[in-house]
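Researcher: We plan to redesign the surface later, but first we want a full-length starting point. Tokens attached.
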């Protein structure tokens, strides 16, 4: 796990090694063990290393191929690098290290762009071809590792985080209105957008090629069009369980390769318990597991994690905090999430990463299980509405109006969802943090930008035609919410403490298998994650695992009425700040009044607005920079 940065100039200018080194230094927490800079003419590559495989200087980066042709900066892990190394044995005379980075270089030399299709892992890397004057860069299939870039006629630059990108060159910081709208509706900025016009994000499962002619993007892997295998509905449950067990075990085992200590996050839920359970069976030593507990019972999962840990016999570590203690992490949150980011569950993830790093350098997680196997209640709702969206439009409109007359506010939200034109649009509404609050952007900006609903609807066009709404929701989350919210959250939070997080449930073989698994094996009789849950029971008894889904939440609603109230009011009443932005301050203040007086909880949208204001104050303008 590392931080990477680089610049390729297409004019006659020279790249300053000190500038590249300073940009890489901004990523030092991602890689505290080593640093390196390579420059030649207008090209500069920088690297910060967190040493996991081959912790000697043989794994130093930037790394140059034996023939001197290729130079690489690499972030991530290739879990099948030993198998690839054996496959490449005939093309490499002598290996100079035991690192996966050297294997990536050799794979590119042999297979070119197609090398990425052979990699099992999480990665973002760039390879400069000194002979052909071409840069090749790629990002892993599910978007675990980040890759930001800027492309212009004069130069191309890239980095693991936006702040390092701005450290490489004096980019304009104009806000991208499209990205801002999507952020205020979803709580994250989806790839390929970034919050500033000058910056883009390389989408998951894509590579790019850069030369003097420009930037060309290609998708190298795609789960969107995989059809569920309806014949699997007739297969015996135990047969499917054995198949799934083999896939998950193989994925977990491949992610245990490390030259430094490793452990696992453990919440006591289905996904993390399954991963920890498999680890305890395949490792010869006690597995170290980590969780955060809270004195406030409404937010505390630690007792569930403790029960699982006791059953599995792990070396369990728990730090108990008061929920308000997490407010102390706000300065780190604002600095490290250097593009607007709304997800407040980052606070406990930061806390558990801080705890884990005291004992290990690598920690496995259960991320991805919900999106692949149907863990969120949104999917159940989408599936229940499946038949409704087959009704004629006038019938749907009548039902929506009738539902809207019911007294509780949730029925008014349901009425609004029922008025959407199709299932993907209704899912976008249910996923949105803006809900029915109305637009906080200026009207002219709304008129010329695309909504989250449109984005989801366009993405759904690539899905199989007869895909169930619940399955559509899972794929939309896997495309957008997972990489740009959940995986970014864990990547930044863990890297803050120089901890590598690995995601065995996101192995490509497992993802493809999950896409083929019919919905009936995911949602059944009101039970979410049916088959994955049954697999977890093989490792941890049902009576320990079965409980309502809780999540890693914090009381943002109460914080905004309590310890953060004066800070929020100061921000939201700052006329000078709002004058620079396409936000309607009167609408925002009306939402603040609604929330602060307790008439309705508006904290998701208000928190997103506050995080954007904080971002703009710190990073969003030339004056702030």
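Model: Full-length starting sequence:
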């Amino acid at each position: 796990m590392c931080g990477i940065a680089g610049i390729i100039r297409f004019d006659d200018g020279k790249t300053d090694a000190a500038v590249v080194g300073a940009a890489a230094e901004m990523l030092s927490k991602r890689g505290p063990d080593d640093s390196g800079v390579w420059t030649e003419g207008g090209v500069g590559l920088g690297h910060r290393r967190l040493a996991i495989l081959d912790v000697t200087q043989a794994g130093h980066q930037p790394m140059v191929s034996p023939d001197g042709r290729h130079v690489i900066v690499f972030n991530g892990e290739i879990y099948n690098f030993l198998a690839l190394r054996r496959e490449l044995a005939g093309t490499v005379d002598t290996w100079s290290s035991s690192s996966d980075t050297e294997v990536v270089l050799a794979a590119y030399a042999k297979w070119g762009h197609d090398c990425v299709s052979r990699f099992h892992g999480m990665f973002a890397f760039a390879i400069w071809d000194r002979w052909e004057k071409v840069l090749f860069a790629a990002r892993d299939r599910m978007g675990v590792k980040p890759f930001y870039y800027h492309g212009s006629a004069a130069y191309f630059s890239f980095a693991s985080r936006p702040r390092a990108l701005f450290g490489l060159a004096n980019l304009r910081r104009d806000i991208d209105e499209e990205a801002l709208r999507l952020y205020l509706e979803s709580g994250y900025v989806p790839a390929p957008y970034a919050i500033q016009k000058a910056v883009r994000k390389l989408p998951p499962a894509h590579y790019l090629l850069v030369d003097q002619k420009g930037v060309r993007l290609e998708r190298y892997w795609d789960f969107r069009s995989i059809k569920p295998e309806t014949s699997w509905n007739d297969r015996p449950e135990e047969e499917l369980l054995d198949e799934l067990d083999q896939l998950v075990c193989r994925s977990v085992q491949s992610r245990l390769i490390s030259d430094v200590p490793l452990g696992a996050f453990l919440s006591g839920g289905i996904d993390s318990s399954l991963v920890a359970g498999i680890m305890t069976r395949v490792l010869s030593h006690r597995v170290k597991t980590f969780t955060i507990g809270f004195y406030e019972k409404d937010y505390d999962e630690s007792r569930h994690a403790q029960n699982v840990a006791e059953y599995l016999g792990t070396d369990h570590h728990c730090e108990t905090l008061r929920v308000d203690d997490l407010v102390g992490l706000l300065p780190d949150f604002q600095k490290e999430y250097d593009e607007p980011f709304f997800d407040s569950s980052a606070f406990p993830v930061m806390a558990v990463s801080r705890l884990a790093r005291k004992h290990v350098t690598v920690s496995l997680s259960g991320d991805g299980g919900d999106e692949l196997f149907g863990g969120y209640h949104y999917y159940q709702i989408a599936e229940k509405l499946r038949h409704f969206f087959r009704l004629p439009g006038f019938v749907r409109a009548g039902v929506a109006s009738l539902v809207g007359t019911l007294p509780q506010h949730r029925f008014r939200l349901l009425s609004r969802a029922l008025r959407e034109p199709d299932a993907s649009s209704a899912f976008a509404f249910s996923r949105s943090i803006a809900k029915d609050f109305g637009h906080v952007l200026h009207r002219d900006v709304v008129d010329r930008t695309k909504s989250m609903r449109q984005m989801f609807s366009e993405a759904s066009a690539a899905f199989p035609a007869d895909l169930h709404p619940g399955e559509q929701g899972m794929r939309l989350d896997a495309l957008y919410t997972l990489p740009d919210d959940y995986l970014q959250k864990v990547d930044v939070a863990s890297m803050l403490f120089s901890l590598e997080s690995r995601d065995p449930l996101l192995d490509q073989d497992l993802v493809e298998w999950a896409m083929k698994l019919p919905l009936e094996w995911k949602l059944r009789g009101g039970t979410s994650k049916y088959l994955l849950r049954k697999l977890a029971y093989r490792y941890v008894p049902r009576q320990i695992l079965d409980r309502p889904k809780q999540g890693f939440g914090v009381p943002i609603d109460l914080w905004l009425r309590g310890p953060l109230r004066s800070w929020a009011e100061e921000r939201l009443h700052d006329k000078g700040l709002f004058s620079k932005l396409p936000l309607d301050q009167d609408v925002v203040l009306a939402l603040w009044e609604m929330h602060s007086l307790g008439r309705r909880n508006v904290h998701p949208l208000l928190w997103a607005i506050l995080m954007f204001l904080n971002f703009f104050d710190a990073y969003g303008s030339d004056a702030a920079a």
